[in-house]
Task: structure prediction
Amino acid sequence: MIDLPFLADICRPTDSKIVLLVVDGLGGAPHPETKRSELETARIPNLDRLASRSAAGGKTPALAGKKPRNAAGATTPVMHGIPPGSGPGHMALFGYDPVKYLMGRGVLEALGIDVELGPGDLAARGNLCTVDNDNNIVDRRAGRIPTSESAPLVDMLNGIDISGVDVKVYPVQDYRFVLVMHGEGLDDRISETDPQMVGVMPLEAKALDEASEEAAAHVRTFVTAAAEVLRERENANMAMLRGFSLLPELPDFGERYSLNPGAVAAYPMYRGLAKVVGMNVIPTGMTFEDELDTLEEHFDEHDFFFLHYKPADAAGEDGDFAAKVQALEALDAGVGRLMEMDQDVLVVAGDHSTPAILGAHSWHPVPLLVQSKWTAGEGIEEFTERACSVGSLGSLPATEVMMLAMAHAGKLLKYGP
Amino acid sequence: MIDLPFLADICRPTDSKIVLLVVDGLGGAPHPETKRSELETARIPNLDRLASRSAAGGKTPALAGKKPRNAAGATTPVMHGIPPGSGPGHMALFGYDPVKYLMGRGVLEALGIDVELGPGDLAARGNLCTVDNDNNIVDRRAGRIPTSESAPLVDMLNGIDISGVDVKVYPVQDYRFVLVMHGEGLDDRISETDPQMVGVMPLEAKALDEASEEAAAHVRTFVTAAAEVLRERENANMAMLRGFSLLPELPDFGERYSLNPGAVAAYPMYRGLAKVVGMNVIPTGMTFEDELDTLEEHFDEHDFFFLHYKPADAAGEDGDFAAKVQALEALDAGVGRLMEMDQDVLVVAGDHSTPAILGAHSWHPVPLLVQSKWTAGEGIEEFTERACSVGSLGSLPATEVMMLAMAHAGKLLKYGP
Result:
């Protein structure tokens, strides 16, 4: 983990290059009929080739005459049995203890819409809701009003001024918004105002600790002002807040590893996660092809790239087995392009598993592949959950993947004399 | 790990016997041409036999009629990806957290020449160097003067007297020496005096913390006195110091495990590591045959032996694949003798991997073999990285190897009621 003492002493900059491809929701589980998982069903010749002994790729001069090999394994993002969110899943792959640096819902929602957060900023997830004349909640989601209707309301909330803090409100989608407070000494131990049921009044935001009394008072001020702003409306006439959270103080990724990291991610939350650990986020388009174009264009500018692939997770979350298989096949086509690039170390990892049969993030160990000229090549024949689980790396915490990548890139000195 | 609470409560002395054979730099990686690692290339019938189900050996009465079996796996000394030094590699196998008990270069150098260190002793690695009339460094290694020439100079430095501390200087080899200060409250947070370049003056030793001001002052006094002692000389007329470090407070190995441990190691650093954790170091010769003679002679005196084999690492560090293969074959011959002895548990482990293709310590998981009458025998057919990685023990932290050895020796009670 990144908390290893003296880590900075053993990391050294070199001109070798690492690409960490994070396939969101990579791992799956067997279909009840075919008994084959999504990876086992998909036609993924490039990933299989990467996983096999004869993997091609890696064409830097340093590799001349040496066939790159690979090491496979299965990662555990947080702990056996724990289904991780995207936040912990990525933080672990970046080498950060996902428990110590856990981010709350408010922070993740803010990162998910490209809001820039600084350390100490207090973020919360907001809902526009509908209350009756007695202030009792009638609809927690204000009839799921469309963004076109909610955005002007959020704009109105943005006019709210609270002395002592800067308040900003951002529309998300439909009835959802994000509240960010910027100020001194804000604490996030504040109770939620959403009672999670109808027929009752929204709850009052309360300080759950002495340290959060000032922040809770600011939240109450905001809620009162919001009710005032919206009160003439029939629906969407009240705002509720939950998931109060602070961006944790995060060690800088590049500094800790002596890397100059670049991030290529189509989806904002992953750009946000990369940004808060200090990676240089490179603008890109919405498809994997766009991402690969971006990577290619900026290939010389960084010695480390975080490359994110989203569609596998989206299909898994939808519970759509066939769509996840397709997403993996589309991934594989891109991997073929990736294999033609000149990285010295290619890591294919997942932030967590998302089996389509579950329709949700799961606790299943996630296949991992490390390719460099130094790996032993254990001869697994395909890139699947089963094959990787008997790979030479065995099962390992996701937090150690970065160390493996660094080692394979020749960027680590001996630990201890 | 040894930090397991109540560990001492569950360890019980028995008359069963454990031999922990540490093969320095055991693990390797495939040769680019043959695709076979050093272990896969070497003819090692005894180790293969040990690794196979039908392994012979272990002839104490308790074993009568039961064929000893084995369990294989792959150990991670510090963390995936981290190439460990010899210090952390051995401390982990002894069951000590290699991060918590990390030793600095000065301490390791001292242990490497059989200098006895106590807790709180401050050690540093020294270089004799050559400076010009302006005190600028001309040669950081004083022309690599031979030990025959440097030893008398080190003797002169030994005459330096500093009030408040005992100072001892020991020759190592050529231009290298070790400085040890014995006194109260010495702190090792001191900056190095070796600028690691020529054409500039040696640096002044500075306290990097308030707590180290006194120790840093002693170091400056020593350096000034050393310059005075050497100043008439043309070369080797100055001394530089680095790697200031204290021996950490180490729990006693024998006490923690309820063992009476003996150590047989040809090379001084490994004797030193054994000594500082409280093992009884038995004098021995320079070859593995000598070590095995020593083990045999003293077999009845201890219930635990740490036995060290060095040549595999030396060959690996030299990048000499063929020499490493030979070193493993020589090891195997000795293992044949070892198998005739009466230990109840034989562990074959490595402190780290040293693949010849890398010419350095590496991060690769290290093959592990535990043989006792209690192991399940997973039927791996040979003692290689690949075979061990699919052994019944899977991959495990090296710090847990001692627990496995204790368990297999019947020396562990139930943990918790």
Residues 53-70 of chain A have pLDDT under 50 and may be disordered. Chain A is about 30% helix and 20% strand. Chain A touches chain B through 38 residues (CB under 8 Å). Residues 31 and 382 of chain A are 18 Å apart (CA to CA).
